[in-house]
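This entry is retained here.
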Amino acid sequence: MGMRRTKRISKRSVFTRECIRLIRKLPIIPHGEFVVLAKKAMTHPSRWQAPDGYGCIKYQVEKASIELLQKAGRKHKHVILQLHGGAYIAGMMDLYRDLAVQYSKMAMDADVATLDYRVAPKYKHPAALIDALLAWEFLIKMGYHEENIIVAGDSAGGNLALALVTMLRDQNRKLPAGIFVMSPWADLAETGESVERNLYKDPIFGKVPGEKRKMGEHLVDCSYAGKANLKDAYLSPVYADYHGFPPMLLQTGTYEILESDSERIYYSAKQAGVQVQLTKYRGMFHVFQLGYRILPEAKLAWREAAQFFDEVWSER
């Protein structure tokens, strides 16, 4: 394990990235509201149904809910706890129900439990973390063993995955077999070096050429933080201590303002003696892995994830 960087970017991914950039430039999309508008566009009464060969059951866990996807409707030994992204302002979308199927396929038909946690503006930190802890306890009560659980998430979900394991470690509980995070949004204070380095490269959260970042301006909506300290390790895991953590796989794009979030986590984990892999995908944008059906880099990233799942569980 270590840090590596892919050598090239496909024409298809460049085209997709620049299309996102053009959409961001539309005058109907005020800066900083891309996630908000995406949330509105994708949030609708769900008509999603599990594909052939899968079953999905929804459980209520206090004020949150969990959707448990299972191959052939039968319980598997292994399970992935999926924590979705959305800047802590977007709830569960069909996008993540589809992604649960992808996780299962890439993880030897493992079960996938997707948590629909509480989000802002109605709820503030630590509501989502409390829900994640309850989801963890739910899986244990369902009979899954800690060594057969992998915690995974993208963006804010990657943040939540790291915060959850930090809390489990701090409470001296048994930890999951591994952690897989894509483009983790792990520093709500936005102090990473890549915030400035990629300010005009990031097609989602960055600025357009000629536009300057205002003093104290947040590029990503951090309303979920409320009045909490933005450098609290349970809110911004770049400030966490990673001693005792299980194996980790981090993936990020080199055009992200959040690129250094993954870098800082990698170095902290490595210094703490954790088995950690960070792969930086050249020229890629925030959570490009969601394009697993069409983007070569996303397909490559999922193959890497599949190998990670196999290695982590084969060692148990």
About this structure: Strands lie at 3-5, 54-61, 64-71, 79-83, 111-116, 149-154, 178-182, 248-253, 276-281. The mean pLDDT is 93.
